[in-house]
Design brief:
Blueprint (H helix, E strand, L loop, with lengths): L2 H12 L7 E5 H5 L8 E6 L6 H12 L4 E6 L6 E6 L4 E7 L1 H4 L8 E5 L18 H16 L1 H6 L3 H23 L10 H4 L2 H8 L8 H25 L6 H15 L8
Parallel strand pairs: 2-5
Antiparallel strand pairs: 1-2, 1-6, 3-4, 4-5
Helix pairs in contact: 1-3, 5-7, 5-10, 5-11, 7-10
């Protein structure tokens, strides 16, 4: 079933339900950036909030679009329901009260129906999002912590765990790169092509693939450190975030002592 039919089918099932006061498209369908691979994100407004009764109404509506093969009901987040039907149509909904829905902006939503005229009362656009300073500091410390665990993985010959460490470093690097671009709408996890610049894509693509052996594990950690830490330091300086100097210095000292490696970039 195509997205337009899914949306109209769900809307038809809910439009006359007294507990459902509004239904909006959010995500890529809400902001006009959807493609053939996009899931369908909804925001459902109900005075009842994320109640069992409203969740049952939603399940009935989704079931009209196809056989439900995955159903996650308020598991990941208290107001979020994820569903996948047999043709792999993905629908997500957030169940919110009118007061909670008031924190959204018009530029991220598209009304399906709006019985109480909530949409015109919303701000035109959401403020530019930026990673909070405490979050940036945490991520930098987490990168250094995972980097420091390299000496444990090498010492124990835990090369499979070393591969997992490289993936953690990669994820932190990608988050940093996305933060650099200040993209107004970051979408879901599968939208990196439009969030990263060509230079950033080349950087990530050029980093070594993780392999479960000592030499490759160490080399990959050093490559990611060289890619991440100077960029993160520049961002921290620009945003007035204190750099964990002592932690980083102690980590490089430990790696030098245990593995004979040096910091792979200039300060």
């Amino acid at each position: 079933m195509d997205a337009e039919t899914v949306i109209s089918t769900i809307a038809g099932a809910l439009r006359d339900q007294p507990a459902v006061r509004a239904l909006f498209l959010s995500g890529s369908h809400g902001n006009g950036r959807a493609d053939a691979y996009s899931d369908i994100d909804f925001l459902l407004v109900t005075p009842d909030g994320p109640s069992d009764g409203v969740a049952a109404l939603w399940r009935d509506a989704v079931a009209r679009t196809g056989e439900i093969v995955l159903w996650r009901d308020r598991v990941v987040r208290p107001a979020l329901i994820n569903a996948i039907t047999a043709d792999w149509t993905r629908t997500d909904v957030i169940l919110l009260t009118p007061e909670q829905a008031g924190t959204y902006a018009q530029d991220g939503l598209s009304p399906v129906f709006d019985h109480d005229g909530l949409y015109p009362q919303l701000p035109k656009a959401a403020p530019q999002a930026q990673m909070p300073p405490a979050r940036l500091r945490y991520q930098v410390e987490e990168f250094i912590r995972i980097l420091g665990l390299l000496h444990l993985a090498a010492g124990r010959e835990e090369y499979i765990n070393g591969v997992a460490g490289v993936f953690h470093l990669r994820n932190l690097l990608v988050e940093l790169l996305v933060e650099e671009t200040t993209a107004p709408d970051r979408g879901g996890a599968l939208h990196l092509n439009r969030l990263l610049t060509e230079e950033q894509k080349a950087l990530v693509a050029g980093l070594p693939a993780p392999e479960a052996n000592r030499g490759a594990m160490i080399a990959a950690h050093m490559a990611y450190a060289a890619a991440y830490l100077p960029r993160a330091r520049r961002m921290a300086r620009a945003r007035g975030v204190d750099w964990p100097e002592r932690f980083e210095a102690a980590t490089w000292a430990r790696l030098a002592e245990a593995l004979g490696v040096e910091r792979p970039y200039e300060m």
